[in-house]
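> call design_seq(struct)
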């Protein structure tokens, strides 16, 4: 039986979201770790995950995003805060970094070849990169076309080379998610990043360094995403 006009009208579009993983992760591991999120966002949004272009040397075992469950197979990152060691630490006050432009090109390629995307999501270092991409989009960079951003456990880069990304308030609609007990990226760092956005939506949870998907979070995720569905 054909659907009625009313049913067609009630059926909203499914959003497409480009997802950027955290340091020491890759496309496969982040796909696995977002399983609950993808399941709960079914019929609302689909994630398209890509890998960062920078391979992390095995010597960088003391990364701030490390831990017992970090992937040992093809770990990736979006930039290195220590160019000499090719390592990264979100707390590091760095004068120079390497890899950011290569990563921006990789994300731009994803937009061109895998898009269009309604939004962009980032976790940890990926969220820090999303904030920079939002700043570039606001400046009119044609490579990045999207309507909203979701930043989970995000932080402001401590590199002086990246200071340009935080000079103007970012008006792109944004949802910032962070845990009260996150020992990798403390909530204060995520709050600091959110302060550079205009009217950010803040979502806190009692857990640590992961993407939460419980009933309380869905009450925020769903309305935020639904506001962009047509």
């Amino acid at each position: 039986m054909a659907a009625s006009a009313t049913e067609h009208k009630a059926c909203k579009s499914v959003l497409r979201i480009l997802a950027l993983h955290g340091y020491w992760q890759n496309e496969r591991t982040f796909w696995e770790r977002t399983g609950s999120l993808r399941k709960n966002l079914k019929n609302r949004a689909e994630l398209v995950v890509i890998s960062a272009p920078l391979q992390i040397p095995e010597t960088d075992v003391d990364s701030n995003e490390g831990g017992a469950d970090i992937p040992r197979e093809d770990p990736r990152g979006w930039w290195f805060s220590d160019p000499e060691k090719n390592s990264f630490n979100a707390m590091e006050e760095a004068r120079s970094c390497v890899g950011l432009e290569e990563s921006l090109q990789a994300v731009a390629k994803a937009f061109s070849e895998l898009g269009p995307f309604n939004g962009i999501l980032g976790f940890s270092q990926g969220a820090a990169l999303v904030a920079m991409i939002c700043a570039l989009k606001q400046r009119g960079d044609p490579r990045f076309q999207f309507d909203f951003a979701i930043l989970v456990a995000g932080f402001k880069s401590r590199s002086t080379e990246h200071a340009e990304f935080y000079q103007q308030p970012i008006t792109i609609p944004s949802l910032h998610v962070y845990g009260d007990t996150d020992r990798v990226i403390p909530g204060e760092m995520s709050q600091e990043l959110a302060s550079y956005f205009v009217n950010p939506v803040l979502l806190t949870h009692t857990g640590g360094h992961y993407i939460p998907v419980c009933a309380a979070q869905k009450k925020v995720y769903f309305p935020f995403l639904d506001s962009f569905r047509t």
